What does this fold into?
Amino acid sequence: MQALEKALELNPNAIDARYHLGDALAEDGRLEAAARQFWSLACDDPELKEPLSVPGLSALMRMAECQGALGCWPEAVSTVMPAVWLSVYTMGHVAYIHQRAGEHRQVAPEDPELLHGAGYNKMKLGDLEEALKDLGQALKLDPKTPDIWYDYGIVLARMKRRSEARPIFRKVLRLDASFFWAWYDLACLDALEGKPAAAFRNLNKAIDCGFRDAAYLMQDQDFQGIREDPRWEMILGRIGEPAPGAGHNGKGLLSLNLVHGIQ
It folds into this structure.
């Protein structure tokens, strides 16, 4: 938190720092302050006026989550509605928040994109059992989309069903070998299971495919057990190199707000 506040003192308009400060406030339980921070990011910065940018859209959805956590579900609906046409993940947000607000009872079971979005956002809000059901149903309707398989694997991993999550991430890579978050999360599993050689091998694969988020990697507790390894500094050095241009971030629209990390 202090590092983010210091960064904003140096550059008050740094979008990433403003976004991550909202995340930090939410994680600290300061939900009203977090909602204000996300509102400022989405609406006050001239770079984020209509049409909404990627961080602006993500900020609105995070603000809606904070409002929901405070029990203000109708307000959350109002917050997220302006972005509804921009993303399947926003649609999932809308479906989930409308359900909680009591405005309708069922996510359209015949729509794999809407089920995917609903499952993704239930995962973010901690409703893992229901997220797994939505994502599983989406996969029955659409078994060839790597993003759905990826989120299904993340839910399994967060449920501590790691032996089931690993082949799911491998399935993602068979569908799209450049999907760097799948390589990244395989590395997470390896690190948590005490397999540093495999973890560094998969982290290098993620970097080969375009992963470049050093700040995220540094705060990811999944890698706590391998940070003293000399290969860790080599990984950080590689992240500082220019990205190759190829690669798949999985959910580009929400790349600032993905749910990663296995623990």
